[in-house]
């Protein structure tokens, strides 16, 4: 049995093929202009699902990177403050040892006492170091300073206003958090046990005739050791943060490569396909021109 083919069926088939060719060419042009294989989820549902998952991973990695960068800045600020503190305390120790010389007269001892009081003020300033308005030695406290001084008393009274037990932490991985602050009360002491009160005691001893400030050297050395210990701890935590930054950079590059493999086009391949499709479309147009234009004269011939 032979199926009957009419002009109308030929026209419909030709127009459908033309539309299919044009649609394919439009799709290739859209991919080439956007540079992406997947412009809408229907282009590749499975690929779109993977792409959304990878973009979610990128957002998480970016947040961890911001956390690590912020944590590194905190620890760098603390390290700088503690380095300055250690230098200041070393100078104080040198002055105390110098004052132990029995040949020093009263004006010389007074000059040393005045310099030590100046160094005390520098230590207080270092203990109140801030980063972006946050005190790095006061935990989560919002008091604005880690230490306050009441100058109305004799000697002055120093108080720690931070929250030493409420630490500041930054999450740099799914299961990794790193402390980025430091306990000011542990480093500088509190109240009468603070390094500031210690320096006031040393200055007062120097102003006392026959006073021996070198008796405070052991206490001063103990405070100095505490600063050095905290410096080591901060360095270890900063190393962890730097390692986390390195790992995050590598993970971000891997995720970017995976995402590119799913959604980015092969430009050379797309250009080749588009050229072939254009040739096919032009050929289809030529064939359709002969099929869609029969007239009565064509039948009479």
TrEMBL record:
Gene3D superfamilies: f41 fragment of flagellin, N-terminal domain (1.20.1330.10). Belongs to the bacterial flagellin family. The keyword DNA-binding does not apply. It holds the Pfam family Flagellin_C. This is Flagellar hook-associated protein FlgL. It is found in: Bacterial flagellum. Keywords: Bacterial flagellum, Cell projection, Cilium, Flagellum. Residues 219-300 form the Flagellin C-terminal domain. It comes from the Bacteria. Its main location: other. The keyword Secreted does not apply. Residues 6-140 form the Flagellin N-terminal domain.
């Amino acid at each position: 049995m032979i199926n009957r083919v009419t002009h109308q069926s030929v026209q419909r088939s030709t127009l459908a093929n033309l539309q299919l060719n044009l649609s394919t060419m439009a799709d290739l042009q859209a991919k080439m202009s956007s540079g992406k294989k997947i412009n809408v989820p229907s282009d590749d549902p499975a690929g779109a699902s993977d792409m959304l998952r990878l973009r979610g991973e990128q957002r998480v990695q970016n947040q961890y990177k911001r956390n690590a960068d912020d944590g590194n800045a905190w620890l760098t600020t603390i390290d700088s403050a503690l380095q300055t503190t250690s230098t200041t305390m070393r100078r104080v120790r040198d002055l105390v040892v110098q004052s132990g010389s029995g040949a020093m007269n009263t004006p010389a001892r007074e000059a040393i006492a005045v310099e030590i009081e100046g160094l005390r003020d520098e230590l207080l300033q270092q203990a109140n170091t801030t980063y972006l308005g946050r005190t790095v030695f006061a935990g989560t406290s919002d008091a604005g300073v880690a230490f306050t001084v009441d100058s109305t008393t004799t000697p002055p009274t120093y108080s720690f206003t931070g929250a030493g037990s409420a630490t500041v932490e930054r999450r740099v991985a799914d299961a990794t958090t790193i402390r980025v602050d430091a306990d000011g009360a542990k480093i500088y002491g509190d109240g009468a046990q603070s390094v500031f009160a210690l320096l006031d005691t040393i200055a007062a001893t120097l102003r006392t005739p026959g006073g021996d400030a070198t008796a405070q050297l052991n206490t001063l050395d103990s405070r100095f050791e505490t600063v050095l210990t905290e410096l080591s701890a901060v360095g270890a935590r900063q190393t962890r943060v730097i390692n986390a930054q390195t790992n995050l950079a590598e993970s971000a590059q891997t995720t970017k490569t995976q995402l590119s493999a799913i959604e980015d086009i092969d430009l050379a391949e797309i250009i080749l396909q588009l050229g072939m499709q254009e040739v096919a479309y032009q050929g289809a147009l030529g064939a359709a021109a002969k099929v869609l234009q029969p007239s009565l004269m064509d039948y009479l011939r």
